[in-house]
Write a structure and sequence with these properties.
Structural class: alpha+beta
Shape: flat
Order of helices and strands: HHEEEHHEEEEH
Number of strands: 7
CATH topology of the domain at 105-138 and 177-229: PH-domain like
CATH class of the domain at 105-138 and 177-229: Mainly Beta
Radius of gyration: 25 Å
Distance between the termini: 20 Å
CATH superfamily of the domain at 105-138 and 177-229: Pleckstrin-homology domain (PH domain)/Phosphotyrosine-binding domain (PTB)
């Protein structure tokens, strides 16, 4: 049974809820930036009045802008923690008992650092020989730059037309990524950290240098028990 005091307790948010909160968060940021420009413009007009300007109207506009800006900042502050929450999902293999050993985890990989990362959907399994990791390794920055140049600048020089930067970046990402399947010895997993159903560690032999992933809420307890059964650093607690 999982309770808020359980070591494996994890918090999640639905995909729809995360999308709505993120959209509201971005809209508030855009509104706050607009209000800053409006306030500065009104202040400039206040100190450089024209024939059509009114001091009282300018002061009211500044006051309203500051009140709305404060409300936006408060909303941004309140929504920011929710934008960082992990999105829950349902594993395709269904329900597995929390005390089951050696069963696979359907995971969502996250960016761990600025280098090459395993990203997107994947699989992790605690096997007797090590941690089996299957996912997509992002391409190197040099390769992505090369592909972007290939599909933008070269066609522009030869044909006078080229793809936009966003399609070029998408092509560079999907063409350059590599399907990865590794069995990592437990001794090679360094600085292991488990929190909120998310596991992060550093590898002794990159790439990637770091790996970060999280499991579904239904698998959080099972992940905790598997890590406890296979400690990456003997004698050290990986939990925080």
């Amino acid at each position: 049974m999982t309770t808020p005091s359980s070591p494996w307790h994890a918090s999640r948010i639905s995909y729809g809820g995360k999308l709505g909160i993120t959209t509201a968060f971005l809209l508030l940021i855009c509104l706050a930036v607009s209000l800053v420009f409006i306030a500065f413009g009104t202040i400039y007009e206040l100190f450089n009045p024209s024939e059509l300007s009114s001091t009282s109207t300018s002061l009211i506009a500044i006051g309203v802008s500051l009140v709305l800006l404060a409300a936006c900042c408060l909303g941004i502050y309140k929504l920011f923690p929710s934008t960082r929450k992990l999105t829950d999902f349902k594993p395709s293999y269904g329900s597995i008992a929390p005390d089951a050993e050696g069963q696979p985890f359907e995971v969502r990989f996250q960016r761990a650092d600025g280098g090459r990362n395993i990203m997107g959907k994947g699989k992790v399994q605690f096997t007797p020989g090590g941690l089996l990791v299957e996912g997509w390794l992002t391409p190197s920055a040099l390769l992505q730059i090369g592909i972007v140049l290939l599909v933008t600048i070269i066609p522009m020089v030869i044909c006078g037309m080229a793809l936009g930067i966003i399609p070029a970046l998408l092509i560079a990402y999907y063409v350059g990524r590599k399907n990865l399947s590794l069995t990592l010895p437990y001794s090679s997993l360094l600085d292991l950290k488990l929190h909120d159903g998310s596991l992060k560690f550093r590898l002794a032999t990159p790439p990637p240098k770091k790996v970060s992933f999280y499991v579904a809420l239904a698998d959080a307890e099972r992940l905790y028990r598997e890590v406890e059964r296979h400690p990456a650093v003997p004698g050290a607690s990986p939990f925080f």
